[in-house]
Amino acid sequence: MAYGNPNLLPDASSAFESGSHGWAAGGNTTLSVVSGQFIDGAQSLRFTATSAGSVAATSPRIAGVIAGLEYVIRAPVRRNSVTAGQVATLTVTWFNDAAAGTVLGTSVSTLALSGATTGWFYYNHPVVVATAPTGALSATVTLSVSNLAAAEYVNTDSVYFGAAVVRPGNVYGYNTASIEQDTSGWKIDSGIMARGNWNLSVGQGFYALEVASAGAGSQEIRTNNFIAITPGKEYTSYALVRSPSITANWLVEFRWFDAAFNQVGPVVQTAYSVPVNTTSWVGVTATAPTGVNAVQCKVFFRPQATAGQQVFVLEDAQFYASASRNLTGNLLTYAEYSTEGTVPAWTVDGGSVSLLQTTSAVTDGLFSLKVTPDAPGTVRATLGRLVPVAAGTTYQVKATIFRHNTDSAQKVISAVRCRVDWYDSSGALYQADNPDQLYASEASDAWWTQVNSVTRTAPDGAVYAKVGFELSSDNPLVDYWFVDNFSLIPATAEYTLSTSNDTGSITLAVNYVPDHASTASNVTITRMDDNGKAAPMRAYGRTWNLAPNPYSVILVEDYEAPLGSRVWYSVQWSDSTGANRGPRLLTQTVDAPILPDGDYVWFKSPGVPALNTQVMVEEPLSWSRAARSQRYDVVGRKNPIHVTGARAGRQSSITVLTWDPEANALFDSLLDAGTVALVQAMPGYGIDGNLYVSIGDVDVEPLNSDAREYGWRWTLAITEVDRPDGGLQGSASTTWQTITNTYATWEDLFSSHETWADVLTKG
Question: 435: how many CB neighbours lie within 10 A of its CB?
Answer without folding.
Answer: 19
